[in-house]
Amino acid sequence: AQKITQTQPGMFVQEKEAVTLDCTYDTSDPSYGLFWYKQPSSGEMIFLIYQGSYDQQNATEGRYSLNFQKARKSANLVISASQLGDSAMYFCAMREGPRGGADGLTFGKGTHLIIQP
Amino acid sequence: DAGITQSPRHKVTETGTPVTLRCHQTENHRYMYWYRQDPGHGLRLIHYSYGVKDTDKGEVSDGYSVSRSKTEDFLLTLESATSSQTSVYFCAISGSGLARRDEQFFGPGTRLTVL
After folding, report:
1. C-beta atoms of A43 and B95 within 8 A
2. Average pLDDT along chain B, 115 residues, taken 10 residues at a time
3. Sign, Cα dihedral of B7, B110, A61, B48
4. Alpha carbon B78 to chain centroid distance?
5. Quick check: B13 and B110 in contact, CB under 8 A?
6. Which of B104, B106, B112 is most worth mutating to test chain A (most A CB atoms within 10 A of its CB)?
7. Residue in B40, B104, B108 closest to A44 by CB
8. pLDDT of A23-61, one tens digit each?
9. Surface-to-core class of residue A83, CB atoms within 10 Å of its CB (0-12 exposed, 13-18 middle, 19+ buried)
10. Which residues contact B75 (CB under 8 A, 6 or more apart)?
C-alpha cells in the first residue's frame, strides 16, 4: 500500500483563486511529520510547510496552510490567492518517527498545478 | 538557503562504468540523504547517513553504495551503471538541532544518463 497518496495528477486553476492539493497518508507510527515541497520547472525542491503529528494547530506559512485532519489521515495543502508563479509540481511527503530523527522522507507522486491568467 | 552543492550537475556515461556523485554541505547538518526522482514515482530514498561513517539503506538501495568520511561530504557510487539508473539524483540534509520544523533541505540535483 502506498504511504502517501496524491490523487490529483494535474490541476488547472484561475489566477487569484484558492487551491487545495490533496494528500492522504498511511502510517501506524504515532509520531510522524508531514511536508509539502514545490518543484518548479527549473527542478529545485523548495520546502513549503511542515506539520508534526502532535502539533495542535494547523501549520501556516504565508499563503500556504496545511489542513491537517489526523483521524482521516489527510494533510491537504491550501494555497490562498494563487499566482502565476505557483505553477509547479507539488509533492506531499512524510517522515515516520520522532522529530529530529534521521529517517528519510516518503514522497507521493506529485500534483502538477498550472495557474491560468 | 541551505548550503548544499552537488557535483557533477549533469553526467552522461555508458553502461557498466562506475559513477560517483558528490554532495557537499556547509551547514554542519548531521543527517544526509540521497534520493532519485523518476517520472511517475516522485522521489525515492536510496541511502542515508546519520553521522560520519554511519549509513543505512533506503527503499531503492540495490546497485548503489555510499560513503561519508566527514560531516560535509556524502558520496553516492554506482559500481556498474545500468540504464535503469538513468535518473535525477537529489541530495538532502537535515538535523541542525535548531530546526523546529524538521524539514530536509535539498541540493540542486544531478541529472545522470546511462547509455
Report:
1. no
2. 88 97 93 94 93 94 96 96 97 76 89 97
3. negative
4. 11
5. no
6. B104
7. B108
8. 999 999 999 999 999 999 999 999 999 999 999 999 999
9. exposed
10. B20, B21, B22, B23, B66, B67, B68
